[in-house]
Design a protein that fits this description.
The chain is of the alpha/beta class. The protein is about 45% helix and about 20% strand. Helix 1 crosses helix 3, helix 3 packs parallel to helix 4 and helix 4 packs across helix 6.
């Protein structure tokens, strides 16, 4: 199992350099991946958590990390697809893939905060349909020289865009969420699955269900990479209710190790520790502890 970290671009860190330095350290210590999160505005639990502190742009932070690293994978956990125009996103992700020489994993979701959709003027009830259509458009723009699409929200033909992904590779798209619609989306369209807020026991059952759905969709379940994510509490900030199910105290390394090994036994190919804290020294210490105490046990 591969081990990655989600840097706290969503946790009110005072300087973005802290996040970039954290990614550089993670690569030096042999971790497999770096991830960033996304919300556009401070509403509900985001505002409760960080107030007016900075929530840095997911893709901007990954772009900066790409320029300071050479081999660690760069992922989003997750982008809210309905917030993005597919042409802009296709160009940005392909550019980032070229900049990083083929290291991007695009993690996506349909969104979980209705109030944020209201602020942005986006249709909450249409978020699933928009997500499916944007996924189809991304593949079309990346893979076709002369792209065409006919859908509910976008229609176009003979469209030429660039760049294409690095060396024309297939950028892996990992779909977030643990609901039945999310699992169906993975089975039909995803290269990976990335749920949050689930226990190892729930995860094991959903992995079995995903494999069944994938076979029903006429695809090989072995083609789907399965990733689990767990939040690591590193300060006294209260986590949101939906995050509590997947939260571990960063001071309890025995529990940190136990969680990773249990998800590995439940079928995870990849595991992400989402670092929930602001102090640069604490964050770096946590990355070192993960590399020392967890990585040797799950990567052999």
């Amino acid at each position: 199992m591969k081990i990655g970290i989600s840097v706290p671009n969503n946790w009110g860190v005072s300087s973005p350099e802290t996040l970039i330095d954290l990614a550089v350290l993670a690569e030096e210590l042999g971790l497999a991946s770096i991830w960033t999160s996304e919300h556009f505005v401070h509403v509900t639990y985001v505002r409760d958590r960080i107030g007016e502190r900075p929530y840095y742009h997911s893709l901007a932070i990954l772009s900066a990390i790409a320029s300071r690293t050479t081999k660690i994978a760069l992922g989003t956990s997750v982008l809210v697809l309905p917030f993005h125009h597919p042409f802009d996103l296709a160009k940005y992700i392909a550019t980032l893939d070229c900049l990083s020489r083929g290291r991007v994993i695009l993690g996506v979701g349909s969104g979980n905060v209705e109030e944020e959709f209201d602020v942005l003027g986006m249709p909450w009830a249409k978020r699933g349909a928009m997500t499916d259509e944007i996924l189809a458009i991304l593949r079309t723009l990346w893979e076709q020289e002369s792209a065409a699409h006919e859908g509910e929200f976008w229609q176009f033909s003979d469209v030429h865009t660039s760049p294409k992904p690095y060396r024309e590779r297939r950028i892996p798209i990992w779909i977030g969420g643990a609901s039945p619609p999310a699992l169906r989306r993975v089975a039909r369209m995803g290269d990976g699955w990335q749920p949050v807020g689930v226990t190892p026991e729930q995860f094991a059952g959903q992995v079995a269900e995903l494999r069944r759905m994938t076979e029903q969709a006429g695809r090989d379940p072995a083609e789907i990479e399965v990733c689990a994510r767990f939040n690591v509490a590193l300060d006294d900030t209260e986590s949101a209710g939906h995050e509590m199910l997947s939260l571990v105290d960063g001071r309890d390394m025995a529990r940190m190790v136990d969680i990773a090994t249990r998800f590995q036994a439940a079928g995870a190919d990849h595991f992400i520790y989402a670092l929930n804290g602001r102090d640069p020294e604490v964050l770096q210490s946590m990355v070192r502890a993960i590399a020392q105490d967890v990585l040797p046990l799950v990567s052999s």
